[in-house]
Backbone:
């Protein structure tokens, strides 16, 4: 047995992978051994373009010198000490930087290790905020249908992607789920009408139930895991206004959209929205280490600041919170954003790919292409005119990404939506190559399957 076969056998024998039917893995195993720039290499030496930023995380490519160095330098001092009742220099410095780059009313940083935890923290903070202020009836959360906020029990309770969440219903707390302004799948094709209808629905709920609602949670400008659904202009701003009017906290989940992904440092900047709480993770360390944070306003923070005996403390924290290596990586990541003008480049790269993606539109089974910055979803349908989906069991999206893998690019689909989320530092030439592979894989997969 050669070396790579040995590792593959071991991976099948010992591992249980996230969001993976292991029967699929057994058929199509993959072990990554190295990365450099936007390329990943597997143990057989095959190279792939990283078309999904190693699951929406990577910013500057792999083995980025400055981030590698920052971690090595920090390693020589200390790797981890606790943030419970104490702090460290990288966590403090990073907190100052984060407050500096997020919306002005966000003034406090509560660290954790993953997006889901950042969401759990936001939910618990919002809940306890009202309790601490003497409004214990405000307990409920409102979320959008098809929203995704992570996989822990609190996060799935405000999640609404049926295939991930239905099985856990008995475990979850109830939340209100309002319609998302999905422009592709709507009776009306006018984004303005759809926006107004959805805002109207929210206002009705708020006006009836505001005394029991703690917070509204929503992804920033685009639903990620729910299928890359871009909100019509003005919707998020409208939600912010309704939250203010009805005294409801606004939590914006920027886990996927933060750190330049949509062409702004944070997607809320597109509409100048000021959330009360904001969750950040994925791109925060450039895709290197598990750091996340829940940003809070001074108003929220102050509701917890009191004598210990008043029992207003936020009793929550994870062992690795504020990890120095992760914070050092995040600081190096943020420096690179400035030095390499990442945001400005994302804006021009997204214009470039928007033109390039037009060629996919001509394919018989591409129903819709949705894009905000370098966050793209290509929805495959059986019938372009009627928008009829492929039969669920055909797994067209999955098969398309397997074909992409064969052709030298990695991604993961969301049902029949092909995700294209390249590292922000991907060059124009690499973007062009990635789109060409995506096009060929879609063409080969859908046009073969579609033959009666
Ligand atoms: C990925 C994601 C999460 C969960 O983050 P993890 O780090 O995977 O726990 C939460 N919210 C959104 C919008 C996400 O895209």
Residues:
């Amino acid at each position: 047995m050669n070396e790579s076969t040995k590792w593959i056998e071991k991976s099948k024998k010992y591992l249980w992978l996230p969001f993976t039917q292991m029967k699929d893995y057994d058929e199509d195993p993959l072990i990554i051994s190295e990365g450099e720039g936007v390329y990943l290499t597997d143990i057989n030496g095959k190279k792939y373009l990283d078309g999904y930023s190693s699951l929406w995380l990577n910013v500057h490519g792999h083995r980025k010198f400055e981030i590698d160095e920052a971690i090595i330098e920090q390693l020589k001092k200390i790797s981890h000490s606790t943030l419970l009742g104490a702090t460290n220099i990288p966590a403090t410095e990073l907190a100052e930087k984060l407050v500096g780059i997020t919306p002005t009313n966000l003034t406090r940083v509560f660290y954790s290790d993953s997006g889901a935890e950042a969401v759990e923290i936001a939910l618990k903070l919002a809940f306890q905020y009202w309790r601490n202020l003497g409004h214990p009836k405000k307990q409920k959360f409102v979320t959008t249908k098809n929203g995704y906020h992570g996989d822990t029990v609190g996060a799935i309770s405000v999640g609404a992607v049926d295939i991930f969440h239905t099985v856990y219903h008995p475990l979850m707390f109830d939340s209100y789920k309002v319609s998302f302004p999905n422009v592709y799948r709507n009776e009306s094709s006018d984004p303005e009408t759809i926006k107004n209808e959805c805002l109207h629905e929210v206002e009705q709920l708020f006006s009836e139930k505001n005394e029991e609602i703690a917070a509204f949670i929503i992804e920033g400008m685009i639903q990620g895991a729910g299928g890359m659904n871009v909100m019509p202009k003005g919707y998020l701003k409208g939600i912010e206004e309704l939250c203010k009017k009805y005294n409801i906290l606004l939590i914006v989940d920027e886990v996927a959209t933060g750190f330049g992904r949509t062409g702004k440092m944070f997607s809320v900047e597109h509409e100048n929205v000021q959330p009360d709480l904001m969750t950040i993770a994925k791109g925060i360390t450039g895709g290197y280490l598990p750091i996340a944070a829940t940003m809070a306003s001074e108003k929220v923070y102050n509701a917890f600041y009191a004598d210990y005996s008043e029992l207003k403390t936020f009793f929550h924290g994870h062992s690795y919170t504020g990890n120095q290596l992760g914070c050092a990586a995040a600081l190096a990541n943020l420096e690179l954003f400035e030095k390499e003008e990442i945001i400005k480049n994302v804006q021009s790269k997204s214009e470039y790919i928007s033109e390039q993606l037009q060629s996919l539109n001509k394919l018989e089974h591409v129903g819709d292409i949705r894009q905000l910055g370098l966050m793209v979803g290509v929805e495959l349908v059986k019938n372009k005119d009627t928008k009829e989906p492929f039969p669920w069991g055909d797994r067209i999206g999955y098969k398309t990404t397997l074909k992409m893998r064969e052709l030298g690019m990695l991604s993961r689909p969301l049902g029949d939506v092909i995700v294209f989320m390249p590292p922000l530092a991907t060059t124009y030439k690499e973007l062009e190559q990635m789109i060409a592979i995506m096009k060929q894989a879609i063409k080969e997969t859908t046009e073969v399957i579609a033959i009666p």
About this structure: The longest helix spans residues 428-449.
